[in-house]
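Ticket #4471: structure export looks truncated?
Reporter: QA, pipeline team
Priority: medium

Steps to reproduce: submit the single chain below to the structure queue and open the exported record.
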Amino acid sequence: MLQPHLVPHKSAHPGPVNIPTQRVGAFSGLPTLIAQLGAHPPSTLASAGLAPDALDDPEGRVPFAALCRLLESAAGKASCAHIGLLAGKMWRLADLGIVGEMVANCPTVGEALEALIVHEHLNSSGGLGFLLERGGIVDAGYAIYHAGLTHTDQYCDAILAGTFNFLRELAGPAWLPAEIFVSHSRPRDVAPYRRLLKVQPRFDAEFCAIRFDARWLTHTVENSDPVRRQAALARLEPAGRGDFLDHVMRAVRTVLLHGKHSGDDVAYTLSIHRRTLNRRLKAHGTTFQRVLDQVRFDVARHLLSNSDIALDDVAATLGYAGVSPFMRTFRRWAGTTPGQWRRAAALNRIADGAFATNSRDPRGFDDIEPPRAA
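Actual output as written to the record:
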């Protein structure tokens, strides 16, 4: 397989980071969906390095990268370019387990989304859920930041479809998005996106997000129960916030979304003093600059490998003053230019036989009704 030359500068390594995983949840219905689309579930799971029973238990966990490979492989084997949307169409808050129970019983949509983001790592540690409010609008979205995650297009589509369902559950059927942002290149057929998400998406975005009027944040969640919410929170308390280094990386990605990148901003996000942040990172054998470099490098590789976003926009996303310093730094990290990396990544996808998500699926989006996960 063709491989970009990857020799990051030592300063880019923050130290050991846990391998991202995904709670199975509604993906337990994916083998049935694969079979319904005419493919063979066991061989499709095997092509992604997963055992035939890997998705049987909704409370089980699988490697995040393997799940991304599975969705991409299933798209090819089933000749269904929008299988990620179909997978996300299955999601309901109940599929998030105790996190979904807590979220569904928050008093307002805004509090529910904030709670979902705080505890999102318990369902998926492959990326970052976020909520950005500015100028009377809100972006509820997801940004992948871990290194080495490829074939993420279908997973990102599933996130968008699932988030759409969550917002409908919380806000009611009158809620509609104003805009949709997709972090991969535009497919040839965008009709499935329009039919499910109700608007024409913007592709090649920095992240996946659903934009809507900020007034919905104060909308009351119908049938929410404060007693059930408190009971769910009590059950979630022992889970904590997970690995500290991963928590810092998530905070770095969060401040980058807000156009910031200083250690003080990250410490504020974590509700700790900057000296405490530095001391704890030192105890983990790393520094803030190394974590910042790693997150920037990971985000850059993801955007270059999965979208056609302009290099100027990639540089701005990562907090660089211009494209030149970004290109110099990327070359120091990777031993190659951003443009060469992007071209090599495109060739890798062809060599891997990855399904082209811009191919036109002969079936209509509504011809297949995804099975509901148990």
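Status: closed, not a bug. The export was complete when the record was re-opened. Leaving a note from the reviewer for reference: The longest helix spans residues 153-171.
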